[in-house]
Amino acid sequence: MPELPEVETTVAGLRSVLEGEIIVRAEPRRADLRWPIPVDLRQRLTGARIETLGRRAKYGLMHTDREDTLIFHLGMSGRWRVDPAEIEKHDHFILETASGRVVALNDHRRFGSLDIIDSAKLDSYRFFEKMGPEPLSPAFDATVLRDALHDRKAPIKAMLLNQNIVAGLGNIYVCEALHMAGIDPRAPASSISKPRLVRLVVAIKEVLTAAIAAGGSTLRDFAAPDGELGYFAKDWRVYGREGQDCGCGAPVQRRVDSGRSTFYCAKCQR
């Protein structure tokens, strides 16, 4: 599933094409993706100007001059195609602008979603209401993380994947950040000292920033809107590298927890 850096890369690509544009066509080509598409989506978007694009966790946001926000999630295989030569079977939503630009949301597994809400109600949106701080924002620091984890006995990795603790982190980048910080993913969250949490927060920000700069990591079908694939995968420290030398002489190990693979080095991470 595309994670925060992939969504940030996608939003940046769409921003260069759509920001400031007037929508002349907003066409859902089916009634639903993972959830039903709002029946008034076409009406609320047609004729509107896209003022800004942004991101919340793993969701992309298009804000219009009608004070509406289109919220999209890429699911497992979703991607936006810019100015496609032809509309494909799995292009489930089409936007066309007054200047003739066309973007198509392609999602052959249909695990993505589209929604539209009053922009003033964005913070109370059902998926955002209890969401934690953005990991790249100043609001996310070691003190905030310590307070969120102080009575949590669950493994630190599971807590970092909890969107109520911190927004937008996924399996790849949590594995990478924990390795960079030298923290065992199995360690009880509340047992980690403040100095180690400081290192962890720095690692999370560094890993995400590097991944965004590289265009994200390519998993299965993900690509940015211009079709370019992300290249951060070549810099993975532990993710997907089971049995390989982590760099300290010990092999990267893999375990499965709740259906998710955890990659780590038992020597480096304690």
Largest sheet: 4 strands, antiparallel
| Assembly of the depicted chains | single chain
The count of β-strands is 10
Summarize the amount of helix as a percent range.
Answer: 10-25%
Shape: elongated
Order of helices and strands: HEHEEEEEEEHHHHEE
Low-pLDDT regions: 218-223
Q: Which structural class do the helices and strands define?
A: alpha+beta
Distance between the termini: 28 Å
**Percent of residues in beta strands:** 15-25%
Brief account:
The chain has 270 residues and is α+β, with helices and mostly antiparallel strands. It is built from six helices and ten strands.
What would you note in describing this structure?
It is elongated, with a radius of gyration of 20 Å. The protein has six helices and ten strands, in the order αβαβββββββααααββ. By secondary structure, the protein is of the alpha+beta class. The chain starts with a helix and ends in a 6-residue tail after the last strand. Strands 1-6-7-5 form a four-stranded antiparallel sheet.
SSE topology sketch:
Elements: H1 4-18, E1 23-28, H2 41-45, E2 50-56, E3 59-64, E4 68-73, E5 79-82, E6 91-97, E7 102-106, E8 113-118, H3 142-149, H4 156-160, H5 171-181, H6 194-213, E9 253-257, E10 260-264
Antiparallel strand pairs: 1-6, 2-3, 3-4, 4-8, 5-7, 6-7, 9-10
Helix pairs in contact: 1-6, 3-6, 5-6
Properties at a glance:
6 helices, single chain, 270 residues, alpha+beta
